[in-house]
């Protein structure tokens, strides 16, 4: 049985490279001093195409170091965890860890490089050169898993996040990690059940929760990860946990281990689950959250959000459904760019479509997280969240969109914006991301002028970078 998330440029690569002397076409701006890093699934061992879910592959981080107008190195490394280290024949000294190797995002914070994942699985600290140091729980201040989508407040440098884990029942956790890398505040927030809450939104005044109808499915979890003979009692145990019981460790840790290992995803579309967004003042608590109904849908990724008088503007990539009939990866109709305006006075959400072409991986200038943005960038996609051939630049003032194509069959990953200086204008700088060329079966780190979308330079890599998830520019200053 075929699985498109194992084919073409979704297929994993089987080598770790350390390459210096990279060839470059065009020009690498001198102000780029740092690393472009990107994470994604890359299963090490053979997986079963009938059950392999794209979100469940072992993590691999790809990185390119830029300095003084040159590309100093390219490295790709599996994110180790105890199981992966064992499979690679390595000693593991990185501490206890649950779930998959972190495969979803990679960030820099408080001088550390962190490979991130969600859903109760352990995130990992990496060295500057992408080797795994060990499990990350923010110096013990935030045990139990984090999220792949923290937001850095551009004012304070703090990381805000919402974490979920089915074993926490009907609670998700909002957290603030300070600029030194320790949690200074956590708030447990009650939701309907056990949703997959992949991301959230942050404004200058508010935290926004997306409590949408993709929820933990105990039968799916059991089918994917437990031998047939054990399924009935295991299903009972799982069902008892969902939405009701706080899982004590080490039992919870065992369950987390069970929901791992390149198998199916234990979350599915649940038509009975209400679609709501929750709005909490930043310094508020569970009792302060106001809930607003929206049309049933799923949102992996907001583009950005901001306060505007008595309203909150949420630009989101909206999927009409998720994991209903397609259970191996996101592919349930075209995800569109929508604007949800939360009217706090009237107590309702106005939903409008900004762009009806399929797209994913929305990003803005990180200096504007939680503030009004004019420009946003996304990747056009024809089949869900899979990468595709063009990059979109949205002008949300003029309500217009421009497209940059990359040639026949090119596969485009998420692009990130890097300003040319701290006080550069909103699209004064570059966009960078990986572009795969099927003719050469290799990828480039492609650098575009964010204003014009013209190519500035390209770093040619010795191998391909499989279609993956999220990346970031980790600058050496700031
Ligand atoms: Fe994501």
From TrEMBL:
InterPro entries the record matches: Carotenoid_Oase (IPR004294)
Metal-binding among keywords: yes
Signal sequence segment: none
Gene Ontology biological-process entries: carotene catabolic process
Keywords (A to Z) from UniProt: Dioxygenase, Iron, Metal-binding, Oxidoreductase
Organism domain of life: Bacteria
Keyword Metal-binding: yes
Residues spanning the membrane: none
Cofactors, names only: Fe(2+)
EC number: 1.13.11.-
Gene Ontology molecular-function annotations: carotenoid dioxygenase activity; metal ion binding
Cofactor: binding comment: Binds 1 Fe(2+) ion per subunit.
Residues where Fe cation binds: 149, 198, 301, 470
Family per record: Belongs to the carotenoid oxygenase family.
Descriptive protein name: Dioxygenase
